[in-house]
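FAQ

Q: What does a record look like?
A: Structure on top, sequence underneath. For example:
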């Protein structure tokens, strides 16, 4: 695949309050994609759902032969469909896992740009020329209230119902998927993260870390440490992709 060069790094941390880590991430430099998934459905089921998503994406992108945008969009859709079907099939076989699912962020690079697939309240950001922009919109109850002007974004951050999500992989047969695409510029830094980071670390602080010198592993560690210092009440997962 003739394509720009991307540096990747990812890490997950159980945090300070949870016994298990239900997040999953993949960074695949050879297939030019990365993902973050946050499992739900309690105990082993949430962990399993995020793992199923990660494996489904790896399966789909193992067959990637070119980096044309149209084909990349098709594969992103296929990865989400595969994962959704596999989780639903698992629940049929293991009924006690009813309600398991996961949020999922998938970023794939093409010849000159990127394609994002997004479901749930994990997020994708892009840091470009000193500006941090959230590229995805949370599929959550509080985000709906923000959209309707009922509460402010500041109120949403502290809202008691902020963890109620309206869309997840593996819950219904039909999965509405947010797809975004755009051009990637040299120096762009993409952040995929679970809500264990963004519930506790403000965008301004994330932007500050990205503005400073430092390797991708150093920036990842700083973000995770800040979330833990702020309480670390959930699993924290960060994947970074930088256009070189």
């Amino acid at each position: 695949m003739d394509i720009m060069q991307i540096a990747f790094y990812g890490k997950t941390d159980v945090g300070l309050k949870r016994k298990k880590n239900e997040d999953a991430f993949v960074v695949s430099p050879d297939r030019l994609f990365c993902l973050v998934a946050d499992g739900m459905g309690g105990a082993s089921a949430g962990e399993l759902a995020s793992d199923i998503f990660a494996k489904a994406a790896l399966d789909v992108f193992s067959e990637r032969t070119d980096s044309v945008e149209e084909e990349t969009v098709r594969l992103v859709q296929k990865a989400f469909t595969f994962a959704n079907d596999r989780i639903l099939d698992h629940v049929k076989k293991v009924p006690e896992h009813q309600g398991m699912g996961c949020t999922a962020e998938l970023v794939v690079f093409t010849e000159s740009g990127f394609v994002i697939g997004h479901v749930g309240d994990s997020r994708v950001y892009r840091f470009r020329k000193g500006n941090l922009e959230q590229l995805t919109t949370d599929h959550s109850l509080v985000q709906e209230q923000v959209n309707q002007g009922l509460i402010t974004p500041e109120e949403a951050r502290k809202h008691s119902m902020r963890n109620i999500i309206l869309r997840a992989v593996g819950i219904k047969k039909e999965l509405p998927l947010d797809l975004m695409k755009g051009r990637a510029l040299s120096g762009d830094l993409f952040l995929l993260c679970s809500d264990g980071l963004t519930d506790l670390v403000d965008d301004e602080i994330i932007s500050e870390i990205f503005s400073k010198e430092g390797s991708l592993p150093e920036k990842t560690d700083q973000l995770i440490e800040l979330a833990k210092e702020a309480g670390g009440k959930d699993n924290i997962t960060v994947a970074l992709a930088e256009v070189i």
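Q: Is there anything notable about this one?
A: The mean pLDDT is 94.
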